[in-house]
Amino acid sequence: NAGVTQTPKFQVLKTGQSMTLQCAQDMNHNSMYWYRQDPGMGLRLIYYSASEGTTDKGEVPNGYNVSRLNKREFSLRLESAAPSQTSVYFCASSAPGPQAYEQYFGPGTRLTVT
Amino acid sequence: AQSVTQPDIHITVSEGASLELRCNYSYGATPYLFWYVQSPGQGLQLLLKYFSGDTLVQGIKGFEAEFKRSQSSFNLRKPSVHWSDAAEYFCAVEGGSYIPTFGRGTSLIVHP
């Protein structure tokens, strides 16, 4: 049981390049989330998916797109990277039912945009 | 709207000393409250959570937290800190939408 996995762990992009961050969970969770973490800012929600086939914007969605490929996988795409998107990105998932409020996090992707 | 304030950006304690990390929340009803810990280079891990019932909740690694409705607080405590507790700690509040709001975090530094 790997929990939540993210790839890649590190990435350096030039301004204007695109990339997709991958996230997968093997806990049969319904909900999945993408956050960014910046120094002094805590975690800010980019997008979330309450269930397979649905996605919704979070607090900071501009410049990002997401795909809920199936119940396991939730990807985050940067179409044209900007230096302001330099951050650490975390994927998380949560279980159905009474435990739906507890989130399980992946190890993160450290992205630098030059 | 829900919000969380962690007033302390950094806390420094000596190993073996007691610890209290502060968390204040804003929410109209009784919220769901969480503390997460993030070790360097890692993702967040749940320490403990409060949903209802007993206002003193026990978590992993010897941590506990007390929900005080009158003060809108959910402070995290540990009686004796170990060097391995050095990490970033996040308080989070959720009001039933399945979307938590995280505080900005408190960095715990442990001196030997």
Protein described:
In chain A, strands 2, 4, 5, 6, 9, 10 and 11 form a seven-stranded mixed sheet that branches. Chain A has a four-stranded antiparallel sheet with strand order 1-3-8-7, with no helix packed on it. Chain A contains no helices and eleven strands. Chain A has strands at 4-7, 10-13, 19-25, 31-38, 42-49, 56-57, 64-68, 74-78, 87-94, 103-105, 109-113. The mean pLDDT of chain A is 94. Chain A is an all-beta fold and 114 residues long. Chains A and B meet through strand 5, strand 9 and strand 10 of A and strand 5 and strand 6 of B.
Task: Describe, in short, the structure shown.
The complex is a heterodimer of chains A (114) and B (112). Chain A has no helices and eleven strands. With 114 residues, chain A is mainly β.
Largest sheet, strands/sense/barrel of chain B: 6 strands, mixed
How far is it from the N-terminal to the C-terminal residue of chain A, by CA? 36 Å
Principal-axes geometry of chain A comes out as globular
Strand percentage of chain A: over 45%
User: Major sheet of chain A: size, sense and barrel closure?
Assistant: 7 strands, mixed
Overall 3D geometry of chain B? Answer: globular
Query: Could you list the spans of chain B in which at least 5 consecutive residues all have pLDDT below 50?
Result: none
Give helix % range of chain B.
under 10%
Helix content of chain A: under 10%
Query: What's the SSE pattern of chain B?
Result: EEEEEEEEEEEE
Give the rounded overall mean pLDDT of chain A: 94
Oligomeric grouping of the chains: heterodimer
